[in-house]
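Troubleshooting: if your tokenizer reports a length mismatch, compare your output against this known-good record of 104 residues.
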Amino acid sequence: MPIPLHAARRRDIYYVAGCKAVEGVVKKKATLRLVRDGKVVHECSGAASMKHFKDDVREIKKGNEFAMQLSGDPPPTYLAEDEIHCIQYDMVKQSIFDYENFRY
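Known-good structure output:
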């Protein structure tokens, strides 16, 4: 089950997106989706680069600005109002459902 970690809006038009984290945490190695007009345009398993000022970072918390380039060949281009969604998949151990204690 995908767990949304954040949503970010881009600010510039280049191969590198200038973003601001608006929710949660943005992680460099998480699954990233470029969403344009409600449709997924590009999906990758991590960012090629992620910088806060001139420092390379692994994660950014809510409210901070950063630059990000998504991995891919060729790298995607960004337009105004694109969103980058950061998703983390967690492995959950399967268990037997307890029908006796289940309540609606």
